[in-house]
Design goal:
alpha+beta, Helix Hairpins, elongated, 4-stranded antiparallel β-sheet, 246 residues
């Protein structure tokens, strides 16, 4: 009995000595070097007020914007000679997409050459009439008639040039024309292949703009009232704006 009590008292005394001898770290300042801060992963930054707080993370489907999709159509019926792009390929505005041959394009090209020749004759006649009128040899009405014929010839040339330009420009050989990309983007759909026929104004390719995308997210009922048009939405490192909530 006596030995056991002595052991208990010794243990209590030892505990008391340990508690009394424990140093106080609360009042001390620990100074760390820059190397020590880096070693333990400490980073210092100035606290700033948050401009926005994320509401929720929701899944979304990506789609090209309707106003960013362009259809490339052929103004003439023809045959596909060459295709320069693949579906999914990125293209720049003005890039040659395909080369086609068309009898209609051949006819328009011949008419353009004829119209240019007629324009040269009409403009020369108009200049000669102005010279003769200035010398008093012919009446001013003759000058007006010559100018009118030259204007009509210019209109015919312009009309046929516009038809060729609407196709993207003439090809290397008569009757060939080039389909060019109207915008920069990605080939979303390719409806042509070498040797295939193509009707006039039929869609040959579809190009989607690559600098803008739409995302459609499904919201739970408790989030609908919290999401507002104009609010920010983030996908990875890209930030966009909410354009509609339905």
């Amino acid at each position: 009995m006596t030995t056991r009590n002595c052991s208990l008292l010794a243990g209590v005394a030892l505990a008391a000595v340990w508690l009394c001898g424990t140093p106080s770290f609360a009042a001390e300042t620990v100074v760390m070097s820059a190397a020590q801060e880096k070693a333990v992963g400490i980073r210092l930054a100035t606290a700033v007020a948050a401009e926005a707080t994320p509401i929720a993370t929701v899944p979304a489907s990506v789609a090209p914007p309707m106003n960013g999709r362009r259809i490339v159509a052929s103004p003439f019926a023809g045959t596909v000679i060459q295709v320069n792009v693949l579906e999914g390929q990125s293209v720049k505005a003005g890039a040659a997409l395909a080369v086609l041959f068309s009898r209609d394009a051949l006819t328009v090209g011949s008419e353009l050459s004829q119209a240019r020749a007629e324009l040269g004759v009409a403009e020369a006649a108009a200049r000669r009439s102005r010279t003769l009128a200035a010398e008093g040899i012919i009446a001013g009405a003759r000058v007006e008639e010559a100018n009118a014929r030259a204007a009509q010839a210019r209109a015919r040339v312009s009309e046929r040039q516009r038809l060729i330009s609407s196709a993207g420009g003439a090809g290397a050989r008569p009757g060939e024309f080039i389909l060019r990309a109207p915008i920069s983007g990605r080939i979303a759909q390719l409806n042509i292949a070498p040797g295939a026929g193509l009707e006039a104004m039929a869609p040959a390719l579809t190009i989607d703009r690559s600098d803008k995308l739409w995302l459609e997210a499904r919201l739970s009922p408790d989030l609908v009232d919290r999401v507002k048009v104009g609010g920010a939405a983030r996908v990875g490192g890209v930030t966009g704006r909410i354009i509609a909530v339905g």
